[in-house]
């Protein structure tokens, strides 16, 4: 009986087959990883685009709401002779200063976008009365507070300021009750009052019978309630955007 030794060519052929199989497996694995990476990149890019578009959409809505509210409330104050503008200004659009609605709209967009951002940063999502009916009631109360600031016939400015402060705190307690909302409302009131002070000091416009340096002492109460109102609108818009992203 003759022993048949394995030939060298057969051994090399088997080895090359194993190597080619390993290379094919590595190639397929790399192709699969590349496909998965591409899909994840596209999904992240799509999600980022959706979030950016949603942020821009919310900002435009807040800007429009702020500009409309500023125009209406400013006309109310001019009608009640609370705010006085130069004669040349009164001949502009809607008998008001043209720069007031854009400035207030920009401020409303910034404040309205900051409220949900701060809620997310603090880890305290705002869940108190999260529906559009509550937001509309908050807007109505805010307009009522502004109307009361020029309608109430109170000679004592301290009493008027305390009354409006109580109404503003009541608006926050009724429609917000969050620490972030209270803090941002205070910050908004302080910054807006300082800006008004600077504008009045430079003669851009003036208030009749100012009792706190150049402005009315109850002005911070109006800005506080306005910040809370715009913040509630921004939160409601953000909640709608989050639900849309979740559904997608």
From TrEMBL:
One GO term describing the cellular component: SREBP-SCAP-Insig complex
Record-linked PANTHER family: INSULIN-INDUCED GENE 1 (PTHR15301), INSULIN-INDUCED GENE 1 PROTEIN (PTHR15301:SF11)
Membrane topology of the entry: Multi-pass membrane protein
Organism: Periophthalmus magnuspinnatus
Lineage: superkingdom: Eukaryota
GO molecular function: lipid binding
Keywords of the record: Cholesterol metabolism, Endoplasmic reticulum, Lipid metabolism, Lipid-binding, Membrane, Steroid metabolism, Sterol metabolism, Transmembrane, Transmembrane helix
Pfam families: INSIG (PF07281)
Functional summary from the UniProt entry: Mediates feedback control of cholesterol synthesis.
The keyword Disulfide bond is assigned to this record: no
Gene Ontology terms: biological process: cellular response to insulin stimulus; cholesterol biosynthetic process; SREBP signaling pathway; SREBP-SCAP complex retention in endoplasmic reticulum
InterPro entries (UniProt xref): INSIG_fam
Transmembrane segments annotated in the record for this chain: 60-78, 98-118, 182-201, 213-234
Chief location of this protein within or outside the cell: endoplasmic reticulum
Localization, UniProt: Endoplasmic reticulum membrane
Keyword Protein transport: no
Protein name, as recorded: Insulin-induced gene protein
